[in-house]
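Weekly puzzle thread! Below is a chain. First person to post its structure in token form gets bragging rights.
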Amino acid sequence: MDKSLLSQKLKQKAFEIGFDFCGISKAEFLKEEAPKLENWLNNNYQGSMAYMQNYFDQRLNPTLLVDGAKSVISVLLNYYPSERQNRESAKISKYAYGIDYHFVLKKKLNLLLDYMKEISGNINARIFVDSAPIMDKVWAKKGGLGWVGKNSNLINKGSGSFFFYWRNHLRFRAGIRWAC
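Winning reply:
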């Protein structure tokens, strides 16, 4: 199957599963981001988040997280709640309404991965939901899902910045590559 058709099928399935947007980018070293990340860390902008200093190389290169990765698939899921908080109740973040987003996203991503295996055969892939040193916003931007605004969040023309972004890193056997 043509890689353009595979990409279209994957994106369509992502929408059917409930994701708002899906983008695909080439898995490669983020050479533009490397000096920015190094400068950010050297200036101690990570504050007390010492873990940000770990896995520098993996943050910049997804092929170090998934051997032979060819593509990064990023998806967006809007979390802006339809309900309003009760004015008398304690205020909580909008993303904390309902079921823990880790469970919601992993379930949907596993459905997407199952579909990918169904149409492509044997693939090597990992799903990450806050579980790996990934530069989420960079990959979402590279996948065409938005731009990074002054607020340092990824902004999508259709949804603003009320969404989660997660990604799969994939290595397809038999030379199949996903590309936009």
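Puzzle host: Confirmed. Bonus trivia for everyone else. Helices lie at 3-17, 33-42, 56-60, 101-120, 136-142.
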